[in-house]
Amino acid sequence: MSQRRKPITDINVVPFIDIMLVLLVIFMATAPLLTQGVKVDLPKTASESIDTEESDPLVVSMRADGALFLNVGIQSVSRAEEEGTRVTVFSLQEQAGKILRARASVPVYIKADQSLNYGDVVRVMTVLQQAGAESVGLITDPPNLEG
């Protein structure tokens, strides 16, 4: 007489744990890469944050040395590792125009170093408006409220 085995009703969680550990390692390795952008010393001012439904703004970053970078995406506002696409004032109108023709409602922001000449920032704003931007916002840092 052979005994019939009782079916195993427990779930084997070892493969699930293996997959979760692999995902954890992947997320830990890629998280620092998600913070990218141009290192810019933004002016500090008290201003209200802009609430937009559009999650991928067009951000033009201007470094203190005058270099321009074009980023698309909400992460580009706070990224510190990767700088985006370097552009010149002359190619900015063409490249921004392509993006604005494809997505007319995309918000446009300038992230400019506070040591830059006011005229340089205005020149970039003018180029963006000629490319089709309805309005151009300026990104600032909140002031330190330490007393």
Topology record:
Elements: H1 14-34, E1 58-62, E2 68-72, E3 85-87, H2 89-102, E4 108-112, H3 118-131, E5 136-138
Parallel strand pairs: 1-4, 4-5
Antiparallel strand pairs: 1-2, 2-3
Helix pairs in contact: 2-3
Keywords:
33% helix; 147 residues; single chain; five-stranded mixed β-sheet; 5 strands; 3 helices; alpha/beta; 14% strand
Structure description:
This protein has 147 residues and is α/β, with parallel strands linked by helices. Helices cover 33% and strands 14% of the residues. It is built from 3 helices and 5 strands; from the N terminus they run αβββαβαβ. The protein has helices at residues 14-34, 89-102, 118-131; strands at 58-62, 68-72, 85-87, 108-112, 136-138. Strands 3-2-1-4-5 form a 5-stranded mixed beta sheet, covered by helices on one side. α2 (89-102) packs parallel to α3. It is elongated and about 90 Å long. Mean pLDDT is 76; it is low at 76-81.
Distance between the termini: 85 Å
Contiguous low-pLDDT stretches (5 residues minimum) are: 76-81
Derived from helix and strand composition plus strand pairing, the structural class reads alpha/beta
Sequence of secondary-structure elements: HEEEHEHE
Rg from alpha-carbon coordinates: 24 Å
Helix content: 25-40%
CATH topology grouping of the domain at 58-138: Nucleotidyltransferase, domain 5
CATH level 1 class label of the domain at 58-138? Alpha Beta
Number of helices: 3
Strand order of the largest sheet: 3-2-1-4-5
User: What best-fitting shape do the alpha-carbon axes yield?
Assistant: elongated
Give the biggest sheet: 5 strands, mixed
How much beta, percentage-wise? 5-15%
| Overall number of strands | 5
